[in-house]
Amino acid sequence: MADNKHVFIINPKADNPSFKRQRGFDPTPETQDEENNEPKFIHEFKKEELRNDYAAFYTQRKSRNENRTIPGPIIDLIRIYFLCVFGDDLKKKFFERYGLSPVEYTHFNKTVMFEVIDNQLFTTFSTHIQQIVESPEGTSYENQPYNLLALVMKFEFIGTLRRLFTSNETGILLTLISSANTAYLAQKRTLLQYLSNRQANVTYIEASPDIIEVKTLTREEKVTIASNFDIVKTVTSSRALKVRPGIYGTVRREFGFTVIVPEGLTTVGIIDTGVNRIEPLQNLISETAYDHTNMGSYWDEVGHGTLVAGLVTLGDEFPAEIKESYTAKAKIAVIKAIHNQDDEINIPRLIQDIRDAKRTHGIRLFNMSLNIPLAKKYNDGYSQFAYELDKLAYEEDLLIFISVGNINGDYIERLLIEETHPDHEYPAFFYKIDSTSEFHNCRNTNISEPSESLNNISIGALAGNLEKDDNSDITPNNSYPAYYSRKFHFDYNQAVNSTPLKKNQRNKYLNKPDLVFEGGDLFSYEAGIEILRSPMAETEKYFGRTCGTSLATPLGASYAAEILNNYPSLRTQTVKALLINTATFHRRKDLPHFSTSTDSLLKSMVGFGRPQKSTLLSTDDNSILFVIEDEISIGQIITMPIHLPEYLQTSGNKLKFDISLCYSFLPLKDNHLNYLPIYMAFNIVRNLDIRTISQAEQAQYGIKRGFSWSEDHYGIENRLFSNAQSTSYTLQPADLLNVENAIAIAVRCLCKDEIPDSYKRHASNNQHRFSIVIRITEIPINEVDGRLYQEMINCNEIRNIAEVINDNDIDLDV
């Protein structure tokens, strides 16, 4: 196979500061819901529920304020569950009428936590609840002063028990609300002083102002904090999920292979249990190290960090084949986050050390095969941990590979052997909302924090172990998602606050995991992936076998390192786009066990699929991969022509465009629907004047009816966006004649309006980076003669990615 390198395409681009915001070829607006002319009144059962909510709210509020043991200003918090999306119009009305200001949006912004800013105005809320409860049956709420409360399903006071989410006394994470209230700063000072007086081991960093990590807190201290400090939103534990060491197997006496270390290898930060300086890794471990445990970065008691480091450095070649020598794919830097397998993760310190590793040592890739325990609830928002990692990735242009977490093997074994039930079988085990099982809830198969992070890459596991034969055990086949791997937690089919989600609130690209790699299978020893072990380990010296998403994740990081080894100047979002662009997976109909399932379930487990090494770093003569790294303003549209060789006009062959877009963004904290407020999308269009493309109907600039924008923006305020998109367009021979030797790639950008003014200013005043990967392949109807790569090079302006050279001094080995 030819080794044709990927290249930047740098044809002259055009841009326009605005574009016509319509959808597709259809000029008619989306059909609106028919107006409901039924009488608008609040049902009697709803009045009774509101009466009970108010009674509980009043009692709990009074009790909390009477039982405070630490004096200071008070910030009452109330959570309201709405029947609709809580937008800017309602935000303004609830503030003006009831003195309530939002501090957190969840459940696609249909559930909102408020702080009471004005207690006098808030008495109106109580008055209106009483008026509703006492109103005669059948009374219309239209034109009534309490009409806003007809949108409320229920409400609750945020007391002590609604803040405490852990029984652990070590690794305590205090997550704070964000507030401009002067009482917030006073409470924060008092909280830090309280912790200092108790000589607590506290990590608080100004760069992450909304989290405080405390090494140890007694139950009484946790209750005191939750009972007195209103700014504390949650008290949780940052203890990691138990990691899997090796499974006992055949004892070996030596490693028996050498490692070739090429010059200029990319360094990957290993966030784990430390790394042992075993022989194969001796020349691959950099001197850069961070130790959160005071036990030594190069002491890996569990063996987990060492096996991860082995898979990052040696890649999928090592477990796939026994050889006398392997070529290293990466070097490693150690960030020892935990020592024992279920220690706490010091999140503020971890964020600080990742930032330092990037700024001081230039490390841009990291592997974190660690998670916070417990599966995310269906349709839950983004965790504080994910937010911190997303913010970090955006600010520093780095990329963290995060495992989605494992479903406990003992739990699976019990369900399959002791507590058998049809809903425990594959794949109903992952999704059966109406299950009759007494022992299993499919929510337990959802991803773990912080793998919902959008700027980084989350990895799930396939059951294969990279060896030639199918060695899977409990999973149906080695090509299936592993029984222990986790799925995305967004379920658009479930009602939220008793009302269904709108069609435009669903996003086909938004998914975690992003990618899958082999992770081995439970429970057979032969089903595991071969890993490196320390010769000093009590069992499994030198080598072992195990399974998990912890093993799949470093295979992804290793692929990313190989990309940067070959193309070191690429942005990390380009690395992400390349991985996504090469990813493929089986169609549901080709997987018998999914034949009665849905495409959405399979997608929720595999994301974009598994990247293919054969097309990751180069192409054959019948294809070419162009890269665009650029930036765009809010409201802007950009086009760049892609010229096509003349021979395609008469070849009679098809031309396929596989295009992937990735971009990082500054996340909007505690705002589920608007967490990603920046919209970008791409399309391939006719190579026309930019004014035509920006202002005309798509029927005029589109190549054909089926070629739509990768993502829609209609109803932008209620939409969920994705910052990782991939789609394909195929030009038939007739299309190639119509476009006359050129098409254009178009990119457009918008920002939501119902977000804080500070974010809107940030979005408007800054350019927004994006990366696009365009793989163009000639698909034969007649014969192909291997001309496409060279002809595309000849008719487009390109720059060699692999070398730092002058734009006009291109020396490609073709």
Could you give the order of strands across the largest sheet?
14-16-13-17-18-19-20
The profile of the biggest β sheet is: 7 strands, parallel
Radius of gyration: 28 Å
CATH architecture of the largest domain: 3-Layer(aba) Sandwich
The total number of structural domains is: 4
CATH C-level class of the largest domain is: Alpha Beta
Q: Give the CATH topology of the largest domain.
A: Rossmann fold
Low-confidence stretches: 24-35, 804-814
Note the beta-strand portion.
15-25%
Structural class: alpha/beta
Fraction of residues in helix: 25-40%
CATH evolutionary superfamily of the largest domain: Peptidase S8/S53 domain
Give the rounded overall mean pLDDT: 92
User: In whole angstroms, how far apart are the ends?
Assistant: 12 Å
The coarse silhouette is: globular
Determine the oligomeric state from the structure. single chain
Instruction: Output the number of helix runs.
Output: 20
Total strands: 33
Pfam family, one: Peptidase_S8
GO biological process, one term: proteolysis
Keywords: Hydrolase, Protease, Serine protease
GO molecular function: serine-type endopeptidase activity
